[in-house]
Prior knowledge:
single chain; alpha/beta; three-stranded mixed β-sheet
Amino acid sequence: MMFPSTVAGSLPKPSWLAEPNKLWPQWRLQGEELAAAKLDATLLALKWQEDAGIDIICDGEMSRQHFVHGFLEFVDGIDFAHKVEMGIRADRYKAMVPVVRGELKLKGRVHQAEARHARVHTQRKLKITLPGPMTISDTIADAHYGDKIKMAMAFADLLNTEARALEKDGVDVIQFDEPAFNVFMGEVAGWGIEALHRAIDGLKCATAVHICYGYGIKANIDWKNSLGAEWRQYEEIFPALAKSRIGQVSVECINSHVPLKLLSLLDGKDVLIGVIDVATDKVESPERVAQVIGDVLKFVPKEKIVACTNCGMAPMRRDIAEAKLIALGQGAALARKKYG
Ligand code: ZN
């Protein structure tokens, strides 16, 4: 199918599951009730996407409090009891982060429950996201490895274990979220891609990396305002990504200052283009979505284009996120008619 649609990953959590409109929400329930509620919310996420006509659907990340820490909770060797304040994404914002204090090991499966639940309840292609090794290493303090790259490679091996298991669960696409690639551009070719290759080692399913300019929170909006008229971060990292073994690259397009011609540097890759802005509550029209797809067509072959959101929608209002999903589905359908 031409211009299939998908989402970057997260969707707003229902208010009975967690505090709404927050990036780090508190859960409303505990224990078995919480575990059951997460799966109920996963079903809801599938239904929203199916009804909106989204083709490659996600679990909505309903089972994780945050896209990085949802993975870290399942890793031994990390001290969550004594968090420290750290400037993350090159000091763009401060966060209280846990500390690595020993050898990293998985406690068990991370996303098995929601992946299997989703697999049973939808016929559509299913994507599950994991945080990328560079982004994890930038969101945690190290008191054990003494070397950021060594620690990132240790995380990459754990991600690989979970990714292989997700593939066995029937997941069609495994995506690694690497917003840090847009911050530490010089390190991407050096070791960032090597870490991703370790994370996807042995996988036969589709693989993706998501590289954005962040959620629509104030620190990110202020940062974007400081980047000037043209955002050329992608120019530094796309050539290395084009040579990598990652199959798909998810990028921010609509309402961003990324020159679309940079997308031609991703030769050979499926490009998940952001046609929905997650930093504004204004809902895109299907015409506007189709127009962005049309603009990208000058630089990416049409069989390589997937319509996507710029980033996750976790902190958005639920009614707005649902309306944006519908615009995404309708806009991709309109583009199929116009350019298919
Ligand atoms: Zn993102």
